[in-house]
Amino acid sequence: MASLVNSHSVSFLRWSLLGVGVWYGWNRQNYLTHHVKQRSLDHKRIHYEELVEEAKIAYDTKLQKEQAKIAKRDGLTTIDFNSYKFDGDAWANWAAKTAEEPPKKK
């Protein structure tokens, strides 16, 4: 009785499956490598944005402290808009006055 499956067909099928497996592995490796690089770039971008935000907050805090010192020197009680002691008219007059004055050299 003759064999139902030819040995050449089996050999061809085995090599074809090997080729498909190699191709799948190569594609999967490329996908994973790209995915890891993308996550790394996203992580770096998020970290950079957090650092920039922290620097902005630190700069605003420093600037606000300097403005508070100048305001206290000029007679304002506070420049914090959320404080109950805040006087909007006095602050507006002070801000207009300081905008007109040239900066003082130390």
Output the radius of gyration.
35 Å
> What is the molecular shape?
rod-shaped
* Biggest sheet details: none
Q: Into which percent range does the helicity of residues fall?
A: over 70%
* Overall residue-averaged pLDDT value: 84
Provide the β-strand percentage band.
under 5%
Count of discrete alpha- or pi-helical segments spanning 4 or more residues: 2
Key traits:
106 residues; 2 helices; mainly alpha; single chain; rod-shaped
What does this structure look like?
It is a single chain. With 106 residues, the protein is mostly helical. The chain has helices spanning 7-74, 88-100. The protein is rod-shaped and about 105 Å long. It starts with 6 loop residues before the first helix and ends in a 6-residue tail after the last helix.
What topology does this entry show?
Elements: H1 7-74, H2 88-100
Question: Brief overview, please?
Answer:
The chain has 106 residues and is mostly helical.
